[in-house]
What does this fold into?
Amino acid sequence: PPPSRTGADGVHTVTVELPADGPSGPRTVALRVRTAPGRQGGAALAGPVRCEIGPGLIRTGDWEAQGLAEYSGGVRYTRRMTVPAEALEAQKAPGGRLLLDLGRVRGTAEVRIGGVAAGVRVCSPYVFEVTGLVTAGENTIEITVFGTLAPHLDAASPTHFVFPGQRVTGLMGPVRLLAE
It folds into this structure.
């Protein structure tokens, strides 16, 4: 069994390290719980189970196709890009704006440019005004997409309340930087 510890706060932690040179792609880790007498069903655990996953690579597109079929949570997409000064000229004109268009998104999207919040969108259009946030030179764009509970709930206990297509989650794109 993997190493585990129980902290002073009563939280039991199990650490599973997967080898970096192992197979690429989705991996599954199963947790088997031996319940204490009298602790059944939802009472088997005294609190929530938290899973922390380190950085990895994910492409734009539906999460289910990338091994996250039952995942309900957030995924952060990060891209560093160099913007030439002349590309920012349009925003200097009266009424000029610079927009970040995320294209098609399924979920809630939060955008940060260079660590500064550009906004949150819960539905289409997923367009953010980034005038003044994008600078000439290197910029870091972070897009965090948060899905609904539908994939998790449907996997845990299939229900007719999860409609076809509701499990689709992710940043589909195309992501474009537009000058107006």
Q: What stands out?
A: Helices lie at 150-156. The mean pLDDT is 86. Residues 11 and 47 are 9 Å apart (CA to CA).
